[in-house]
UniProtKB/TrEMBL annotation:
Upper classification of the organism: Bacteria, Pseudomonadati, Verrucomicrobiota, Verrucomicrobiia, Verrucomicrobiales
Protein's name in the database: Adenine phosphoribosyltransferase
EC supergroup of this enzyme: transferase
Sequence ranges assigned to domain Phosphoribosyltransferase in this UniProt record: 40-154
Annotated family: Belongs to the purine/pyrimidine phosphoribosyltransferase family.
Function: Catalyzes a salvage reaction resulting in the formation of AMP, that is energically less costly than de novo synthesis.
Natural source organism: Prosthecobacter debontii
EC number(s) stated in the UniProt entry for this protein: 2.4.2.7
Catalyzed reactions: AMP + diphosphate = 5-phospho-alpha-D-ribose 1-diphosphate + adenine
Residue ranges the record marks as coiled coil: none
Compartment list: Cytoplasm
Length: 177
């Protein structure tokens, strides 16, 4: 991906101070999603790390991770698996509680969503403290699938989420702030 494309993506993300609570600088990705060329470049850039690898499933995290995860899955010729906030999935689930930059929550995955040894990529829009991704990675691990790596559109490096995920496999981020 060219430095010009990365800079265009970076400068299109909107900073919103004090959302959803005081002291948080929220990275608003909606202007990127609204621009077809930029959205395509974001997905292309996030997919590059897995080019040439056989990927069976991309796991995306509720809700912004669904957008990136589903588009990445399509680009890689893989299926898409949703990790959802508690109480939203209809079938039998396993769940994990976690903390994130601005609160606490629980995520769930269907017990039969992934088969043992399937090749899996985790995708989300943003890595902050790593609490959310760590919870999703625990669900992937419990399923017996093989994690190829995690990919994020944005990494907030000052929150050290990458360290939390380090033992799970390769961590890729298109833009670092
Ligand atoms: O690294 P962390 O500190 O865990 O933060 C990152 C998570 O926070 C946001 O999700 P949010 O729960 O706000 O969900 P949304 O996509 O529904 O807005 C973001 O989409 C990541 O999933
Ligand atoms: N600062 C932030 N901006 C957008 N999404 C986030 N998720 C966690 N921290 C965030």
């Amino acid at each position: 991906m060219s430095p010009e494309s990365l800079e265009r993506l970076r400068s299109t993300i909107r900073d919103v101070p004090d959302f959803p609570q005081p002291g948080i600088l929220f990275k608003d990705i909606t202007p990127v999603l609204a621009d077809p060329e930029l959205l395509n470049e974001a997905i292309e850039g996030m997919t590059e790390a897995f080019a040439g690898q056989k990927v069976d499933k991309v796991v995306g995290i509720d809700a912004r991770g669904f957008i990136f995860g589903a588009l990445i899955a399509q680009r890689l010729g893989a299926g898409f698996i949703p990790v959802r906030k508690k109480g939203k999935l209809p079938w039998q689930t396993r769940g994990v509680d976690y903390s994130l930059e601005y609160g606490k929550n629980s995520v769930e995955m269907h017990v039969d969503a992934l088969a043992p040894r399937e090749k899996v990529v985790l995708a989300d829009d943003l890595l902050a403290t790593g609490g959310t991704a760590g919870a999703a990675l625990q669900l992937i691990q419990e399923s017996g699938a093989d994690l190829l790596g995690s990919v994020f559109f944005i990494e907030l490096a000052f929150l050290n989420g990458r360290e939390k995920l380090a033992e799970t496999g390769p961590v890729h981020a298109l833009l670092t702030f």
